[in-house]
TrEMBL record, chain A:
TM spans (from-to): none
Protein name, as recorded: Indolepyruvate oxidoreductase subunit IorA
Cofactor(s) needed for function: [4Fe-4S] cluster
Chain's role: Catalyzes the ferredoxin-dependent oxidative decarboxylation of arylpyruvates.
Organism: Slackia faecicanis
Binding partners and assembly: Heterodimer of the IorA and IorB subunits.
Residue sites binding [4Fe-4S] cluster 2 per the record: C538, C557, C560, C563
Magnesium among keywords: no
UniProt cross-references to InterPro entries, sorted A to Z: 4Fe4S_Fe-S-bd, 4Fe4S_Fe_S_CS, HACL1-like, IorA, Pyrv_Fd/Flavodoxin_OxRdtase_N, THDP-binding, TPP_enzyme_TPP-bd, Transketo_C/PFOR_II
UniProt cofactor note: Binds 2 [4Fe-4S] clusters. In this family the first cluster has a non-standard and varying [4Fe-4S] binding motif CX(2)CX(2)CX(4-5)CP.
UniProtKB/TrEMBL annotation, chain B:
SUPFAM superfamilies membership: Pyruvate-ferredoxin oxidoreductase, PFOR, domain III
Gene Ontology terms, MF aspect: oxidoreductase activity, acting on the aldehyde or oxo group of donors
Entry keyword annotation includes Oxidoreductase: yes
Pfam families: POR
Protein's UniProt name: Pyruvate ferredoxin oxidoreductase
Amino acid sequence: MELISGNEAIARGAWEAGASIGVAYPGTPSTETMENFAKMPGVYAEWCPNEKVAVEVGLGASAAGKRVLSTMKHVGVNVAADPLFTAAYTGVGGGFVVLAADDPGMHSSQNEQDSRYYAMAAHIPMLDPADSAEALAFTKEAFVISERFDIPVFIRSTVRVSHTKCAVETGERVETAPVPYEKNQPKWVMMPLYAKPRRLDLDERIERLRAYAETCPFNRVERRGDAVGVICTGATYQHVVEALPEASVLKLGMSWPLPAQTIADFAASVDEVYVVEEASVYLSDQVKALGVKLSQPARPLSPAGELTPQAIACAFGADEAPHADTPANLPPRPPALCPGCPHRLVFRELARMKAIVTGDIGCYTLGALAPLSAVDTCVDMGASISMAHGFELGLEGEKHRPVVAVIGDSTFAHSGITSLLNTVYNCGTGTVCILDNRTTAMTGHQGNPVNGITLQHRPSRELDLPALVRALGVDDVRTVDPMDMKAVRAALKEAASNDELSVIVFESPCVLLTKERNAPYEVKSDCRACGTCSLIGCPAISCDPETKVAFIDASLCVGCSQCSQACPYGCIVSTGGSHA
Amino acid sequence: MPSNATTVLLCGVGGQGALLAADILARCAMACGQDVKLSEIHGMAQRGGAVTTVVRLGEKVSSMVADQGCVDYLVSFETTEALRNISYLREGGVAIVSDESIKPLPVLTGKLAMPKGARKQLAAHQAQVIPAELLAKQAGSVKAVNVVLLGALSTYLPYPKDVWLRVIEERVPAKFKDVNITAFESARAWAERNAAKEA
């Protein structure tokens, strides 16, 4: 038995099934799946710039005959939706399995969408494991289903499946022979001529999948009592069996298509039947649409956020376990840009100049939090640049604060390039800051097309960002060291006063990558207690609550000098002599 | 939600080593024939934010999350985080808390204050406040705080000491093996002395 997470189990299941190609863009809670798959013997795996590209690469490799795993977080499925919807029409060559990792509770995401809706909307069958053992078994079977029904298959996980470790019996890899590629235009050329008959073929495949769902061993009834029956999928099942030990349970391992007859039979076998699900009404709506009359718990569950056993038990009438109250007035502990993060001063300067800052996904979202409080918006990958253009359009003709987009290097490669192209094409204005830290930092320092580090460490090339931006048609492109406060201030001021589109590439690697440490800084005794240094939001700097005198924690300080530059009175100095 | 499984909630600040502690605990339980689930949250919280990890142990474990009033052992790497999670402790549950306090950013910038009388509040919950950093330093590395907390926790759990030592040896980097064994032993001795004092 091995103690492995759901993500590791999915990677292992794909490998045991003979998958030989993996394609992904990192995103919590999916990331470790492809990182683990990439370490398996005999496989090729790559990070792609985004999920759409990953699915298209995967579909090509599948068409060519190989078994392929593609992984992404739930919002990545939005990006990949375009090829996925049509991949249901084309079907596959070798088995093609796509992980959609949902984040109910939004531990590390901007929304809590339910990927089961995608399965239904795209006509892609979906398996919904409840723990690591199922994640492994379901992934293996997903490849069989994919080839048998000529269709991509979703594995859906949630954060509590992906990031929960439990004991799993692993197996051996079984190599599968590639499905030989033969030119087949009616299958692979989705123009109306071929797509129309292929649509009818898809409907026929789905009908066969509906029949399969009735016999699929992953849909099972656990019979306990006749009074209460609960229908559920995924991690929610684990909470239900603990919360309602008397209830019979229909555990659906296949969350689309649903087994209509199995559900009707189960509903008829109990006095009251309920659906319990997390952050969504997908399943209850689908079961109701089958004509099943659902009962409502005494106290309806919240449609938002994660479920727990107690939340379910209380909905069904149990009392909450007695517990102490959380003490009032506890200070929150939000995440923060790391001590020494080289891009901190950009946010400080943007806050100082009171810019309208359209932000993006990744570490730099943290520039929204106090005391930096610099960021006005954060929506999705690449939105910083396109929303900045939209702000400029919306404020056209009005006197307004400068509009500045802030985006990281990996996010720019993911979805920022087309946004910038649009601004150039439509003669937009404003300032775009690309904070190039040479990595995909927030998800754990993955390689990307900018740093040129590939998933399996094959030699590649770094991207020349300023040259790319120039090639897109931006005339005003400058490269600035974000650790130099005067240069940051001057560049932003100049760019903001320019009537044309300006792009500033701030180049400095993530502090966690370089591991460079200089002598820590200290506050001299003549500190004037003005509080300016604390505005850069460095976790190593504190202000005395009474005197407001600054203090630097030498154990956290990495000697980056940014606070020293921010101090208007020269009161912060290096303990190691002159600073770099 | 009362359950047959034992629930351990580990909490602290990103980067303190709670994940390794949870991993060692889970493997001890597995080595003793128990079912186990270990649930952790990655991502945003890693950048210095508050983190929690749940380990559930027993004959058969279903859910992987902890509910308020249902945690048997609250193991905290930091006093404010112990208070933040105190509502999870069940009546009669045990809190083991490192005596370290780490100021979050809103306190560092002077906007908010640390809770007053944290020790007193923890004492009201009969928390075992352990000088974990001191014991870790004495053992040879401040990084061994996680194993110190495990040492204290181990005195409440039914797993034989040799199983703990074996799993620690397997899971910590080879060059820190001795440091961690010393840290574990000294924390057990501290917990036993403390228990004797209370009795």
